[in-house]
Please model this.
Amino acid sequence: AQSVAQPEDQVNVAEGNPLTVKCTYSVSGNPYLFWYVQYPNRGLQFLLKYITGDNLVKGSYGFEAEFNKSQTSFHLKKPSALVSDSALYFCAVRDMYLNDYKLSFGAGTTVTVRA
Amino acid sequence: DTEVTQTPKHLVMGMTNKKSLKCEQHMGHRAMYWYKQKAKKPPELMFVYSYEKLSINESVPSRFSPECPNSSLLNLHLHALQPEDSALYLCASSQAPDAAYEQYFGPGTRLTVT
Model:
């Protein structure tokens, strides 16, 4: 089985401050981890993924995420948030060894960046 | 080009209507997906096509009928829908159905069933 938890429904930060969106996962095997962002009335946009290798992954729009196997976490970070980063963020996981085509999403975290 | 296109953007249909949603990608991707998404919720997987064959049907009611005419196109045929089927319907594609490949999503079709 595979699952993702995003413990915060909402994250509020001031523009220019660091942004962190938390994600923890559970898989039977090894995880492939993804972050997506969804702006209002739009589809999901792929931000970054962890497959293997360096635990720090860099993605689009200045976002990065750190894979921590011991804490089963994959938190999304941005050093300096912009108002335009306000959106709904989803963490997702697939188990490397499951061949069921399914991407398991977290419940989502709404990020609001105030000017 | 990482674009997945969906038409129409909005659709209002009665419970007795028949309509279709269309999805297209020209990235050479061999896996395509239909998702249903309610407001502020994660997408729910409906169907997966892998190399143009239906691989996953997540116990979706028969009033939703998917079709994959070729490797670039994915349709979702709708018939006798219920008001609770109103949602954002998202199409996605990935290079292959393997777990390592990220999915690229279209902008969605906002469906309202009256």
